[in-house]
Amino acid sequence: MDEAWTTAWKLANGVPLREALGGRDAAEHWLALDLAVRRLTPDTLPMYFSRGGPSPREGWNALLPSFRRTRERAAAAESGTALGLCHPNGHIREAALDRVSRYPDLLPLLVVRCTDWAAPVRERARALLAEAPPAGLVAQAELILLLDRRERGGFAAEQLGRALREGPAEALHPLLESADRATRRFAHRIAVERGLLPPLRLARIAARSGDAVLQDLCAEAAVAAVRGTGHDDGVLGILLTGRSGRVRAAGVTALRRAGRYEEARAHLTDRSGVVRACARYVVRQGGTDPLPLYRALCTGEAVAPGAAAGLGECGDLKEDAGTLWALVRHPDPAVRAQAVNGLRALDAVRREGLTPLLDDPSSAVVRAATRALLPHAAEFPVEWLRERDTPEARRAVRVGAQRLLRAAGRPYVG
């Protein structure tokens, strides 16, 4: 906010807009400037004046002298127009709009005024924005989408969407790589609508992005493209190796439409429960029961952690609980943790069997055991749990004891 006050004060002293901004043209800065100018009064100015500078009243009297006269004699200077667009008086803001077309650099403030609470100001600003060049709207995409969160912020976003849907594809390219998440999402939605991204690129975005919205959007679009053309060209392979379980699940599910049921077997032991569930569905669609596969995977020499979890998710309590209890003692901590999760899914948890895991060397196992034992918290001796809630205990052990004490309705020692 201090930077916005500095910009406002410079504008009030006739400093040209670009110089007053000092390179600070981010979307948040324009909103902060709008607020700073509204509060630029003799009561608030002193704290922002340097020693030896003009007095608050002199500074305020110098602010927008021409705007205090009439609508026809609005400030001619760009800096004065900028201040007028942010002025607390709605009549002055409306008058400033008549000058805004002369100064392209003031387009961000025109966008801000499209959300103005005063209807005459808002409607006039919207009429002017509708005439703005599409390139200008694209350049202010981040600000427009930030304002779209406001109650009256939808108009500019609609204009931006129209410009991107009807304009050249090249206008979208920089927005697809924007550092702003909302801008990236908006641009990708439109690019997908227009069919501008090839399936392989969509798959790579889905597989590499850390944004769940983009993962879903691009994965679904990539799968739809494969379904529509009947050609994979490596798209599903990219999805199946994606960082996110959501993306891998989309790839696994697409294997069914492609008739590649056998390939889903490799994903029965995926680290993601969603992917495992999709893999079981595809395997069943191919005529194979996944349960015997899980049983074989859990009794072999090398047990994948996901196999233990999957056995609990689709196994039989009487026949498979013993296998999972044996895996609770497996040397691999990942297998032990997933075996506990499998017991939870199978509803086969026994307090006495999992209690030793609350002191397991692996924090992941301690967390899994704690979650499984929460319904049994009241069965634990309070003093036994408090012995583990000490500064000397490992963090996972201490947190586990605290969770169990809370679940049992007992206070714990912090």
Architecture blueprint of SSEs:
Blueprint: H1 2-12, H2 17-21, H3 27-38, H4 56-61, H5 78-86, H6 90-97, H7 107-113, H8 119-129, H9 134-139, H10 141-147, H11 154-166, H12 173-176, H13 181-194, H14 199-208, H15 212-229, H16 235-240, H17 245-257, H18 273-285, H19 290-298, H20 305-314, H21 317-327, H22 333-346, H23 351-354, H24 363-373, H25 382-386, H26 395-407
Helix pairs in contact: 1-3, 5-6, 6-8, 7-8, 10-11, 13-15, 14-15, 15-17, 17-18, 19-20, 20-22, 21-22, 22-24, 24-26
Question: Can you offer a commentary on this structure?
Answer:
- By secondary structure, the protein is mainly alpha-helical.
- The protein has a domain at 1-132.
- It is built from 26 helices and no strands.
- The longest helix has 18 residues, at 212-229.
- It is elongated and about 80 Å long.
- The protein starts with a helix and ends in a 7-residue tail after the last helix.
- The relative contact order is 0.04.
Number of helical segments?
A: 26
What is the global morphology? Answer: elongated
What portion of residues is helical? 55-70%
Ranges with pLDDT <50 over ≥5 residues?
42-76
Number of strands: 0
Strand residues, percent = under 5%
Mean pLDDT: 88
Q: Briefly note the structural class of the backbone.
A: mainly alpha
Distance between the termini: 39 Å
Task: State Rg.
Answer: 31 Å
H-E string: HHHHHHHHHHHHHHHHHHHHHHHHHH
Described by strand count, sense and barrel closure, the largest sheet is: none
